[in-house]
Amino acid sequence: MEPTQPQDEEHHHRSARERQRRGPMWTFIRRMTIVTIVVFGLLALIIGGGWWYLGTTSFADLVRLRIQKTLESRLGRAVSIHEIDF
Questions:
Q1: Where are the domains of the chain?
Q2: 86 near 54, Cβ under 8 Å?
Q3: Cβ atoms within 10 A of the Cβ of 68, count?
Q4: What CA–CA distance (Å, rounded) separates 69 from 63?
Q5: How wide is the angle at C-alpha 39 spanned by C-alphas 47 and 36, nearest 5°?
Q6: Which of 86, 55, 83, 56 is nearest to 68 (CA)?
Q7: For residue 86, is pLDDT > 70?
Q8: Looking at residue 73, what is its pLDDT?
Q9: Residue 74: Cβ within 10 Å count
Q10: Is the pLDDT of residue 10 over 60?
Q11: Helix H or strand E segment including 26
């Protein structure tokens, strides 16, 4: 039995792959990719900011102050540290 009616030229059969391409799975993957990029970007900013802070003089002063206070409490006398290098 041959079909007697010709198929419309405008009607395009969509395969299962074409239907999936715009489905919820691809939306989820796209959103997860964006979220992953944002998370890695934030981590890079946080780690970079911490790395920068470790190189500043305010961090060196903080370490110097803590070492002074620890030595003063253990030795029972005044301690002064003039310079500290990392």
A1: 23-47, 55-86
A2: yes
A3: 14
A4: 10
A5: 140
A6: 83
A7: no
A8: 93
A9: 9
A10: yes
A11: helix 24-54
